[in-house]
Every structure is written in C-alpha cells, then in structure tokens.
Amino acid sequence: MKTNTKYLPLLLCAIFTFNPAQAKHVTTTIVEAEYQDVRDDLVDAVKGKGLNIAGVFHASEMLSNTKSVFNFRKNIYKNAEIIEFCSAGISHDISRANHLNILLCPFKIAVFNLEKDPKKVYVVWAAPEAIDEKSKKAVLKIGGLISAIIEDADL
C-alpha cells in the first residue's frame, strides 16, 4: 500500500503549532485596530524584550491555499499568523526543571482577524501547563513573559 505524503507537512504544522494537551487555558485580547499595526506592535514588543523571533507561521495563507482540498469555499481568517519566539533564560529554567519541558519552546502568540469582521484583531496565547511539581515555578515565567509582551504592545 502506497502512503500519500502530500499532506504530511500540513499535518505536522497543525500538530506542532498548537497542542491543547499542553495548554492550561487560552487568553484572548480583542482590539479594534488595523491588523498590520497590531502584528507589528507585537513583533516590536518581542524584540523589545531582547528576544529573537524564531519564526512566523502564516496560518491564514496555509488555510486559504488548502481550503479546496477539504471542500471549503470560504476563508475564516482575513489574516492569521502565529509568532514564535524564545527566551534563553526561561528555556534554561524550564529545561532544568524537567528535560521534557523543551517542548514548550518556542513560545507562541497568535494574531488574527476574521473575514467577517476584519476591524477586530484577536491576540491569543495559551498558557502552558507544568508537567510536574518541579516545573510549575519555571513554567509560570512563560505566561508572565507573554503577558508582558502583550502589555508592551499596548493592547
């Protein structure tokens, strides 16, 4: 039997972009603004913390490009990106607490607007859950960092 690997990259992106098992809760901020302004403010806030952007996953582009494969006609998002970044200090802390915590890095903030309401921009992030007691203190730093980034972006 031949395995069709054509959609494997899409599946891997979906798996590694967001894993609900590692999320305690999702925090959402909604602002009435231009998408690009909010996105740029977030990127500037990440860089303002001395952090490097590890990558930007262009979710709306991927979903738009593949909607016909799955028999969808309409786009959900007008724009949707997931900004990935890491803090070496926090990564050391979480990894030293438990070597399995390396999965939590890079940290992620999603920013998007919807086709049906493009003036509302959503900023969403999931607080990771500590996998054991030893990791709790270190993992809390991730949520603190992301909250500070969003605050610095003035959202």
Give the arrangement of secondary structure elements.
Blueprint (H helix, E strand, L loop, with lengths): L7 H10 L5 E10 L2 H14 L3 E6 L1 H8 L10 E10 L1 H10 L9 E8 L2 E12 L7 H17 L3
Antiparallel strand pairs: 1-5, 2-3, 3-4, 4-5
Give an overview in words.
With 155 residues, the chain is α+β, with helices and mostly antiparallel strands. It has one domain (20-152): TATA-Binding Protein. It contains five helices and five strands. β4 and β5 (117-128) form a beta hairpin.
Q: Tell me the number of helical segments per DSSP (H or I, 4 or more residues long).
A: 5
> What sequence of helices (H) and strands (E) makes up the elements?
HEHEHEHEEH
Number of domains: 1
Cα end-to-end separation = 52 Å
- Radius of gyration in whole Å, from Cα? 17 Å
**What is the total tally of β strands?**
5
Oligomeric form: single chain
The helix-and-strand class reads: alpha+beta
Approximately how much beta-strand content do the residues carry?
Answer: 25-35%
